Amino acid sequence: MSKYSELKKINLNTFKKMKADGEKITSITAYDYTSAKILDKSGVEIILVGDSLGSVMNGYDNSIPVTLDEIIYHAKAVKRASKRAYLVADMPFGSYHVSDEQGLENAIRLVKETGFDAVKIEGGKGRASMVKKFTDAGIVVMGHIGLMPQMVHTMGGYKVQGRNGHEEMLEDAKALEEAGAFAIVIEGAVADVAEKISKNISIPTIGIGAGAGCDGQVLVYHDIFGLFDDYVPKFVKQYADVKTIVGDACKQYIEDVKASRFPAKEYTY
Ligand code: KIV
């Protein structure tokens, strides 16, 4: 038990204190009411409605087709379940890529319609002016650097970043920090690079496939609980095998119904 597990509601100050105390930040994605309720009660500090919902909820090949309406739909469900966790929603591909103004309009819509605490956008230096615009307007922003799934086509696939050193990614992180981001996701990056960045900026880094040197970690709900097996990246640790539990339970139910064992008397009016 850490002193942070006693907190009734996680807020921006919590993350500043956690970074200063060297207390790791935990985050898991969620996309629906029931899952978010479990996570919120478990004590995770950040629930992220990620555009990973494109793959794990909808079966898209990547996050590109995800729309702002879809993010808003899922975020509203997560909000109804969450009392304690800090809530962050992804801005999907196309919702902020035309201009800073387009991004701001959509970010305003996202926080207004969902009641979420913050939005997340991908990109480094090139997004700094947008992060500043959002924060000036009162919208809290999480950055996202390293492997950026929304850039899958221009990046030439899902490739680990930072193999040529830390300079460029550190510049990106510093630009986001200066622009007002409250935290930065570092995805798919060499561990030493992510650690160097984490030590050289004052805001927390949240790693996914970026090693143990980050100030926190995030994983996708369907990955961490062993629900999604289209592909399982190297960085995923499955803490449960829910796919097998559900599959076995389903087989038992089928057998019971076929054998007229279900519904027995106790399940009957
Ligand atoms: O979309 C998502 O779930 C994310 C996390 C993996 C960081 O961006």
SSE order:
HEHEHHEHEHEHEHEEHH
What structural category characterises the helix and strand content? alpha/beta
How many domains, in number, for the residues?
2
Q: Low-confidence segments, ≥5 residues, pLDDT <50?
A: none
Radius of gyration: 20 Å
Q: Assign the CATH topology of the largest domain.
A: TIM Barrel
The tally of helices reads 10
Question: How many individual β-strands?
Answer: 8
Strand order of the largest sheet: 1-2-3-4-5-6-7-8
Function: Catalyzes the reversible reaction in which hydroxymethyl group from 5,10-methylenetetrahydrofolate is transferred onto alpha-ketoisovalerate to form ketopantoate.
Family: Belongs to the PanB family.
Subcellular location: Cytoplasm
EC number: 2.1.2.11
Structure description:
GO terms for molecular function: 3-methyl-2-oxobutanoate hydroxymethyltransferase activity; magnesium ion binding; methyltransferase activity. It is an enzyme of class 2 (transferase). Its cofactor is Mg(2+). It is found in: Cytoplasm. It catalyses: (6R)-5,10-methylene-5,6,7,8-tetrahydrofolate + 3-methyl-2-oxobutanoate + H2O = 2-dehydropantoate + (6S)-5,6,7,8-tetrahydrofolate. By secondary structure, the chain is an alpha/beta fold. It folds into 2 domains: 3-238, TIM Barrel (Alpha-Beta Barrel), CATH 3.20.20; 242-269. It contains 10 helices and 8 strands. It has helices spanning 12-21, 33-42, 53-56, 68-81, 100-114, 128-136, 167-179, 191-200, 221-224, 242-258; strands at 25-29, 46-49, 86-90, 118-120, 140-146, 183-187, 205-208, 216-219. Strands 1-2-3-4-5-6-7-8 form an 8-stranded parallel β-barrel, surrounded by 7 helices. Strand 6 (183-187), helix 8 (191-200) and strand 7 (205-208) form a beta-alpha-beta unit. Helix 2 (33-42) crosses helix 4 (68-81), helix 4 (68-81) packs parallel to helix 5 (100-114) and helix 6 (128-136) runs parallel beside helix 7 (167-179). The chain is globular and about 65 Å long. The N and C termini lie far apart (45 Å). 3-methyl-2-oxobutanoic acid (KIV) is lined by residues 29, 48, 50-52, 90, 185, 187, 208, 218, 220. 3-methyl-2-oxobutanoic acid is lined by residues 29, 48, 50-52, 90, 185, 187, 208, 218, 220.
